[in-house]
Amino acid sequence: MEKLNVGVGLVPTRNEMSIAGGHEVRPYVLSHSIRLGSLALAHNIILSPMVGVTDAPFRRLCARGGSALMSGEMLSSQAIKFQNKKTLALLKFYPDERPVSSQIMGAEPSVMAEAAKIVENYGADVIDVNAGCPVPKIVKTKSGSALLKDEKRFAAILSAIVQAVKIPVTVKIRIGVRENEYLAPALAKLAEGCGVAAVIVHARPVSKRHSGRPDWEGLRQTVEAVNIPVIGNGGVNIPKDAEDFLRISGCAGVSVGRAAIGDIWIFNRIRHYLETGEEQSPPLEQEKLEVLWQHAQWAAEFFGERTGLLRLRKIVPYYVAGFPNAATFRSRANKIATLREWEELIEDTRKTFI
To answer: What is the pLDDT of residues 25-66, one digit of tens each?
Structure first.
């Protein structure tokens, strides 16, 4: 019997066959529900965790934009265990952002398990384990992508967390450390044996960081290695990219990261494209401006006015890219620190669209 890797039955929709590394991948309905253990997602397009970006205000916006799962930014298991106030503050979840996944990182199985229990008690719907972060300061602690080369620690961490919590556990990995080094298939199989509900694979090696084309062959081999959902990530910028991930590799879903910053509607556009083959227009400048204003208000509410608006500065360029007055907008945004000033900036910019 042919293996279905998505948790639901699928029906072929086209006669053509896709090719990946000389192997044929049977085409399925590309937009479908997906199951992470006990949790059923409405569809298979989700938000990727991004440090400093996927906080509660941004996740709430992405829920409105159509993401099936909102993913929180990577948090240190040590900081969670020792009750770091700033870290615990990021574990506040709103009803309108569910289902929500919280990603944790660390190297000690017992600490990771304890942190996972705390996150579960705070109300997360899914625990995601980071085993792919390439940042040197993370790797030096034997965390993140260091786990790709440490199967014993990798398995011990996953087993400890799965045994500690009742909610689904996922793990995010990379294809490998270097090009054409496929560590992901064996790691995914190991994760499945530990009871993990799904594997999210950044389809580039650690050496490529966030550049280069996705490695379809490595991702396809990972999909074929397991019977749990494999979600592809890394380079999903437009709806056609998502189709390529799903059709060429056979992965169960895709995870969207930086392309969603300033464009929360991308999840709905991808889903529409997968279901109809039709490209929807990107958001108008006026629409992006209104979402930015909502983002500013929610950021101020969540973090406090000063901290929230300071955090917002780093992603303002994504919102205003393509604005005729983008440089002026960015300059003003980098100098203001109150909602009243933000409201004035938004109102002044609205007038330029009339």
So the answer is: 434 479 999 999 999 999 999 999 999 999 999 999 999 999
Strands 75-76 and 100-105: parallel
What confidence tens digit (pLDDT) does each residue in 289-335 have? 999 999 999 999 999 999 999 999 999 999 999 898 899 999 999 99
Whole-Å CA distances, 29 to 33, 52, 75, 198, 220:
10, 34, 35, 20, 17
Tokens 């298979």, located at residue: 44
Nearest C-alpha neighbor of 90 from the set 50, 63, 61:
50
Domains of the chain, residue spans: 18-276, 285-352
198-202 vs 45-47, strand pairing mode:
unpaired
Q: List, in sequence order, the alpha helices (H) in 7-135.
A: 56-65, 77-81, 85-89, 109-122
Fold category of 18-276 in CATH: TIM Barrel (3.20.20)
CA angle 31, 11, 220 (to 5 degrees): 65
Beta bridge partners of 47: 256
Pick the CATH number of 285-352 from 3.40.50.300, 3.50.50.60, 1.10.1200.80, 3.20.140.10: 1.10.1200.80
Where residue 155 falls among pLDDT bands split at 50, 70, 90? Answer: very high
Give the residue from 114, 70, 66 showing the smallest Cα distance to 92. Answer: 70
Q: Which of 62, 133, 194, 251 is catalytic?
A: 133
Full-model pTM: 0.89
For residue 208, the model assigns a pLDDT of 75
Q: Which residues contact 45 (CB under 8 A, 6 or more apart)?
A: 31, 66, 67, 68, 242, 253, 254, 256, 267, 270, 271, 274
Q: Which residue has the tokens 């399925």?
A: 28
133 assigned to active site = yes
